[in-house]
Amino acid sequence: MAPASKSSHSADDALQAAIDGDLRRLKKMATKVNLRDAKDAMGRNALHCAAGKGHLDICRFLVEELGLDVNSTADGSGTSVHFAAVGGDERVLGYLLDHGGDPGAPDAKGSTPLHDAAEQGHCKAVRLLLSKGVDVDPVNHRGTPLHLAAAKDRDQVVKILLEHGADPNKVVNHVFSPLMMACCGHSLKCVKLLVKDAALAGNRLADAKSQGKEAFAKGDYVAAIYFYCLAMEKDPLDATLLANRSLCWLRLGEGDRALLDAQQCRMMSPHWSKAWYREGAALSLLKDYKGAVDAFVQALKLDPASEEIRKALRQMFFLLPSISTFKEAMDALKSAVAPGRVEQQNS
């Protein structure tokens, strides 16, 4: 095996100086080595090393005097911001962010600096990153920052994340919620925080639904939409909220938006007559009468006793553009009420 070159030894010495926080030695090595290119076996440069160890003076020298890029990446380990988040020194982290560091950049595995700071329990670093507007619930292969903090018994970080709107019910890999992670990590404090927040979230959801209904009853459809949106942030899979918001858009004459909500509602609950009814109403507003009839017929098949749906269908018959379409609609209505009867009459 060939002996290591003098330049590789010099690079290693320079990186060690950055790790040790020895600015004097690093400056001396900078006259012999191009520190912008010097990396260790894991792809880390001097700035990565210094950021991870919390050496602010080293970081300043490397960024301001040598021009190292704060967003350059190590092999799979992220940027200097990631290393600073792991190290937890908020002065270094703040410096890098102030000099162009990306606070939300994911590494090769999808981990963001918030993941790193949360897992290590660095409260000040977590608050600093959140103050930069990063997503509180980014997902990597192990979950969100809340998952990682709960698993490691970082109860103060869990509290901060929940205060900033982290989702305590988010499930990753089809199984794991933050609560389950806290249980696996034997963290009673985190379990209590998550259970309490889930209960409060349920109250907030109920309040938003109630306020939406009240606003709708008063004819304030814009306010109702606002409250339904708040409720949907907490429970995006509630088809009733989509149906209610679709109706609000209808009252405001916004057919396209009403149709979008109705179609999403119908996809979520294809066997719910109201979902089809809302779609028919939106299509009617958009003057797609044939499509409206098709939707109303599907609604009537699911709820044959509904006089509201029958009335909507009858109104469509007067708007259909042709006799043939009218006949098709009548046949569809008869088959919806009594399946098979139309075939017998036409045979």
TrEMBL record:
ANK repeat copies, ranges: 76-108, 109-141, 141-173
The TPR repeat ranges on this chain: 273-306
The protein's matches in PANTHER family, at most eight in alphabetical order, are given as: ANKYRIN REPEAT FAMILY PROTEIN, ANKYRIN-LIKE PROTEIN
In terms of superkingdom, the source organism counts as Eukaryota
What high-level taxonomic lineage is stated for the organism?
Eukaryota, Viridiplantae, Streptophyta, Embryophyta, Tracheophyta
Whose protein is this, by species?
Eragrostis curvula (weeping love grass)
What PROSITE patterns does its record include? ANK_REP_REGION (PS50297), ANK_REPEAT (PS50088), TPR (PS50005)
Where do the Serine/threonine-protein kinase BSK1-like TPR repeats domain residues begin and end?
A: 206-277
Q: Which InterPro entries match?
A: Ankyrin_rpt, Ankyrin_rpt-contain_sf, Cul2-RING_E3_ligase_SR, TPR-like_helical_dom_sf, TPR_BSK1_C, TPR_rpt
Output this protein's name.
Serine/threonine-protein kinase BSK1-like TPR repeats domain-containing protein
Q: Which UniProt keywords apply?
A: ANK repeat, TPR repeat
